[in-house]
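Page 47, continued from p. 46.
Same chain as before, 224 aa.
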Amino acid sequence: MSDRQIVHKRLRGASLATDRYIDVENGSKRSYDHDTKYMDPPTGNYGIYAKATDGLVLVDIDDYEELDDATGLAALSELPPTLEQESAHGGTHKLYRVGATDDGKLPAAVLAAVFGTMNPNPPWGEVRVANPYTVGAGSELDDGCAYTVQADREIAAIGADDLVDVLAADPNIERDDIDPDPPDPDESVVLEDVDDRLEFALEHDDKLERLWRGDYSDYGGDRS
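Result:
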């Protein structure tokens, strides 16, 4: 079984949606299309996309050799063993299925409430929950280094509070200005998409841009 088949099998086994694979440029880790999703890993390089609307959390451990304080990394080791990928240059990707809280909040909303962002940045790497991706095992860079399955295990199921406790144990984790009433993840994702599309439309449609500025001359001055 190939590495990409293992990743797919483990996502399905954890009852996580598999319409989350995206194209990544061959030979690199860049992706220019986050809108087109695949049910199965595409050929060539691919990414595993994190959605604010479900429980997949991607934990990317990169910068740990020069840590001044390894408290957070030690806390992370308290989480149960799970599927791990090795990145092309020696980092580790851990995949978790994180359940909602008793009041129904998904991990993205819980992290936003505690850390001020859905995607916290501890000193040792990144936690990817809403909209970012990690390159999938089976992908290869131009320098010949590849992403591989480091530990083939079932994706561990943990609670959102467990994840927060582990991250909060790191005294050096970044905390953005915290919104006491963070937006629902579903709404924030939709708004991000709308803002991006509106900005694109205004840049490429002169008529729409004039209307946006309040110029109704293209419509005979009819504001309706």
